[in-house]
Write a structure and sequence with these properties.
The chain has 448 residues and is mainly alpha-helical. It has helices spanning 12-19, 22-46, 52-71, 83-95, 97-100, 108-144, 164-189, 208-214, 224-229, 233-260, 287-299, 302-310, 322-345, 366-375, 380-393, 415-444, and strands at residues 149-154, 157-163, 191-192, 219-220, 267-268, 350-351.
């Protein structure tokens, strides 16, 4: 079954090529497609295009289909092109002519748009929740190890003293910035495109504000051509937010892999969180973190891939958009999985304080000695030359006691400020999520 079927046989190879993996991917969108149909049928009843009894019949059956979509009972049958066709087929089989009316004043284009908006809105909200949860664990670790000194590196060379408290909290604040990106993507997806039809509106007197309110959207995409032209653009914006968070996780995973190695040996995890070698009995490999790094690096390529598909496309719908679907729909689960495994693993980390008196760490205190001379009144450049001379002739012997007080230094981590950033950027989003989820629940509880 195809919604566009005009009774003309379709070349089978052409059909297989054009449908691609839509049938499998659309099961991810099924709950959202049915929510959209619930709102749409309620609106059709409100404006008189469905009778009260027809509206009630559609509502009850759609609510049943929604439950099936959540439990996994709903399938897209062989020969049915996509989730939109499957839902309409089942409504028609169950309700006859009433089921055939569900597509009134609607195009498959704005059905897809709506489904992807709803899906994106939900998944972005879930990612933000996980990011905050991981950030809190990082801050807890930061506070636990606030005074544990570690070498800081530039160019892979020992540079200056740092602390594990500084290292852990740095990633928490990075995720606070990622929340800005997630919030922007959430706001972009929280505008209702339903009712734009094929991109040019419809002559039916539909009430788009009504369906938007039922689905808990913050606003409408008013211009129907603009609504259609967000296909691809909205996905790219959301993918950029995903890539930003993935970048933070990738760097954290990379550091962990380095710090677990015997050459550094700053941290370790329980044996049951590492893997072994088939021939080297001593190996404890950081496969978990290497896979997080690899997955997150792959996710950072997604915005570029989407850009390449949509670049120079003219206004309106084009089948090219289908090519975005697979990687885009899966990117949220991929990143969620990385966040969840990091939340699971991080409490098991064991910090092993390095012996900062080792010869290889001696020079990381050179800046501290320069600063002490400056405080005594020696100009900075002269102090720099004096310490450089001692390093050159081998007479440099640093004092390893540290006294850092400025905001964000190892002696004044300002983790409370980082927590405040996280709260200020997450709580408004969380409140908006609560509003739309309560509204969509009403659709499912027949309170319309």
């Amino acid at each position: 079954m195809k919604l566009w079927d005009k009774g003309i046989p379709v070349d089978k190879r052409m059909e297989e090529f054009t449908v691609g993996k839509d049938r499998e991917l659309d099961l991810l969108l099924a709950p959202y497609d049915i929510l959209g149909s619930l709102a749409h049928s309620a609106m059709l009843k409100k404006i008189g295009l469905l009778s009260s009894s027809e509206g009630e019949e559609l509502k009850k059956m759609l609510q049943g289909l929604y439950r099936q979509s959540i439990t996994g009972e709903l399938i897209i049958e062989q020969g049915v092109e996509d989730i939109h066709s499957q839902v309409e087929k089942m409504l028609t089989e169950g309700l006859g002519d009433t089921g055939k009316k569900i597509h009134t004043a609607r195009s498959r284009n704005d059905q897809v748009l709506l489904d992807i908006h709803l899906y994106t809105r939900d998944k972005i909200a879930d990612l933000a929740h996980l990011a905050v949860k991981l950030s809190e664990e990082l801050l807890l670790q930061s506070e636990q190890h606030s005074k544990t000194i570690m070498p800081g590196y530039t160019h892979f060379q020992v540079a200056m003293p740092a602390s594990f408290g500084l290292w852990f909290a740095g990633f928490a604040e990075s995720m606070a910035d990622d929340l800005f990106m997630l919030d922007a993507a959430f706001r972009i997806s929280n505008q209702c495109p339903l009712g734009s039809a094929a991109g040019f509106g419809t002559s039916f007197p539909i009430d788009r504000s009504f369906t938007s309110r039922l689905l808990g959207f913050g606003d409408l995409r008013y211009n129907s051509m603009h609504a259609m032209n967000t296909r691809g653009k909205m996905e790219k914006i959301a993918a950029q937010a995903v890539a930003s968070l993935a970048s933070t996780l990738s760097r954290l995973a990379t550091d962990i892999c380095l710090y677990m190695g015997q050459d550094m040996g700053f941290i370790k995890f329980p044996d049951n969180m590492t893997t072994g070698s088939s021939i080297m009995p001593h190996k404890k490999n950081p496969d978990l973190f290497e896979l997080v790094r690899g997955k997150c690096n792959k996710l950072q390529a997604l915005p570029v891939a989407i850009s390449q598909i949509i670049t120079n496309l003219p206004s309106g719908y084009h089948r090219d958009f289908q090519l975005i679907k697979e990687d885009y729909l899966n990117c949220f689960e991929e990143l969620s999985g990385c966040l969840e495994i990091m939340i699971h693993a991080l409490p098991e980390i064991e910090v092993i304080p390095p012996d900062i008196n080792q010869e290889k760490y001696r020079h990381m205190f050179s800046v501290e000695e320069v600063n002490k001379l400056v405080i005594k009144g020696i100009p900075f450049r002269e102090a720099y030359r004096q310490i450089a001379g001692k390093i050159k002739n081998g007479s440099f012997m640093p004092d390893t006691k540290l006294h850092h007080t400025h905001e964000g230094s190892m002696g004044n981590l300002c983790n409370d400020k980082i927590r405040k950033k996280l709260e200020q950027r997450y709580i408004p989003l969380q409140q908006t999520v609560g509003i739309y989820r309560r509204k969509t629940e009403k659709l499912l509880l027949a309170e319309i």
